Amino acid sequence: MSVPANKAVVLLSGGLDSATTLAIARDQGYECFALSVDYGQRHRAELEAAARVAQALGAAAHRTLRIDLGDLGGSALTDESIAVPEAPQLGIPVTYVPARNTVMLSFALGWAEVIAAPTIFIGVNAVDYSGYPDCRPAFVEAFERVANLATKAAVEGTLKFRIATPLMDLTKAQIIQRGTALGVDYALTVSCYQADESGRACRKCDACRLRSEGFRAAGLPDPTRYFR
Q1: Count of domains for the chain
Q2: Is residue 14 part of a domain?
Q3: The predicted structure's pLDDT at residue 93
Q4: Angle, to 10 degrees, between the axis of helix 172-181 and the axis of helix 16-27?
Q5: Which of 75, 195, 84 is nearest to 134 (CA)?
Q6: CA angle (172 as vertex; 199, 90 as ends), nearest 5
Q7: From CA 127, how far away is CA 42, in angstroms rounded?
Q8: What is the domain extent for residue 155?
Q9: What global pTM score does this model have?
Q10: How open is the CA angle 148-146-14, to the nearest 5 degrees?
Q11: What is the domain-level CATH number for residue 94?
């Protein structure tokens, strides 16, 4: 099997974790093809951030695909009738978007097969995270098996796909320290679940809390802009 191992598709949301993941992939010598997904999220600020990050970190290409998961409902991130919680939640929070990572990885897999990129990077984390089931190692391992069963390239033996999760076992502070060492400008990123149109953060949602606590634990200044 001849595998062009230097190409990778990197899922890029525009947030802190995905920006760090792109920097890690680049540092590992990959030619990075960044993929963002407009899935009907509350704001476009994170997609604008993704474009800034892709350019700053030298992605070979950056594409944004569109599918409106908001048509399905069921999440505070796509349905404005569901409030984004501003206090810690028990269990899986309402900010979980049904099938989001499955859909995103499927898009990434499609592009990876087209451009013959055997590696797909995703910035999921199972330490400092919100408890989403599609961020766990078991999910990633299962999707990798699917990728190698469902694609022409894998079945014919021209590619064997790998899902890379470099942040899986890191704390938020460790992620920030790693990204800082690799030159990530976190002022370009947007993590907030309910950021305003200019990308300023709310300070109170789960994503804001995890991000703020991460910078504090890392001993680094938080460059996040807040609207309150």
Answers
A1: 1
A2: yes
A3: 86
A4: 50
A5: 75
A6: 85
A7: 25
A8: 7-218
A9: 0.94
A10: 100
A11: 3.40.50.620
Residue with tokens 């404005």: 80
Tell me if 223 is assigned to some domain: no
| Buried residues in 177-189 as b, exposed as e (16+ CB within 10 A) | bbbbeeebebebb
**Section 179-199 average pLDDT:** 96
Three-class HEC string of 141-166: HHHHHHHHHHCHHHHCCCCCCEEECC
The answer to the question of residue 226 being in a domain is no
Encoded tokens for 114: 């087209």
Q: Residue 31: its pLDDT value, please?
A: 98
How far apart are the C-alpha atoms of 20 and 207, rounded to whole Å? Answer: 16
- Beta-carbon contacts of residue 64 (< 8 Å; ≥ 6 apart): 35, 36, 37, 38, 47, 50, 51
- Rounded to the nearest angstrom, the gap between the alpha carbon of residue 143 and the centroid of all alpha carbons in its chain is 16
The average pLDDT across 76-103 equals 86
Sign of CA dihedral 93, 98, 99, 104: negative
Task: Report if residue 113 sits inside a domain.
Answer: yes
- The token pair that represents 25 in the structure block: 């992939």
